[in-house]
Design goal:
By secondary structure, this protein is an alpha+beta fold. It has one domain: OB fold (Dihydrolipoamide Acetyltransferase, E2P), CATH 2.40.50. Strands 1, 2, 3, 4 and 5 form a five-stranded antiparallel β-sheet that branches. Strand 3 and strand 4 form a beta hairpin. It is elongated. It starts with a strand and ends in an 11-residue tail after the last helix.
């Protein structure tokens, strides 16, 4: 597996495509790790025996946006509950 700053890349082999839309992959140089994922995530034309390159990248912008949304919701709930530190709302 190639290591990089904010992303990693590895290889995989499609073992099979199952009914119901699941793809079974064997991942890594040794192909010992089995991963199941929606077949819709595979590139067009992928089938049993296809070799893939998989890259996983951190999406820091998305994380920051989610944290901002949660923070805004917390502030809104605190205001609705009567002030900071007070939790006078029902879930």
């Amino acid at each position: 597996m190639e290591k990089g700053g904010k992303s990693k890349r590895t290889r995989a082999v499609v073992d099979r495509l199952e009914d119901g839309g699941t793809a079974v992959l064997h991942v890594g140089d040794d192909e010992e790790t089995k991963v199941e994922l929606p077949a819709s995530l595979l590139p067009e034309g992928a089938e049993g025996g296809s070799h893939l390159v998989i890259e996983v990248t951190l999406d820091e912008g998305s994380r920051e946006a989610a944290e901002d949304r949660v923070r805004a919701l917390q502030e809104k709930l605190e205001k609705r509950g009567g002030g900071e530190g007070r939790k006078n709302f029902k879930l």
